Amino acid sequence: MMNIYLDIDGVLVGTASPMSDIVDLLEYILERFPHSTYWLTTHCRWGSNQCAQWLEQNGLPKPLVDRLHRTVRPTHWHTLKTEAIDFSMPFVWLDDALLCSERAVLRQHHAQDGVFLMDSWDDQMALKALAYLKSIGD
Ligand SMILES: [Mg+2]
Residue 56 above 60 pLDDT? Predict the structure, then answer.
């Protein structure tokens, strides 16, 4: 069992990766981790989940957005995204920019390895994330 935490901006939208690669990445996550994938983005906080609208506005295919909306679980956090992470479980957190204070929390939990940092300027990034998720097996 592995939890997947997904940022959106700089990871799924606003990135150099081609849409087809982002779709492939999301299809794999939906197929492989349907019960343990969580939004970890400013579009889902304070108990409000705007992820589907935002993804659709940014050009993700509607059928895929609908499946994401049904499958990816919302999180509740206020100041730091790390508030929403379950440190008792292995996880992969796909994000393009962590706060220093979020890095500090990861260090406290010896969980720095859980972050897969996404470079939004790298047009191979979605492919690299997909290869990484496939490589960790589970
Ligand atoms: Mg981001």
Answer: yes
Phi, psi of 78, rounded to the nearest 5 degrees: -120, -55
Number of domains comprising the chain? 1
Note residues around ion ligand 1 (Cβ under 5 angstroms): 7, 9-10, 96
pTM: 0.96
Q: Does residue 19 fall inside a structural domain?
A: yes
Q: What is the pLDDT of residue 68?
A: 97
Give the integer Cα–Cα distance in Å for 77 and 81: 6
Asked, for residue 86, whether it belongs to a domain, the answer is yes
- Length of the chain counted residue by residue: 138
- In the reported structure, the alpha carbon of residue 89 is separated from the centroid of ligand 1 by a whole-number distance in angstroms of 23
Domain presence at residue 1: no
Give the three-state DSSP class for 4.
strand
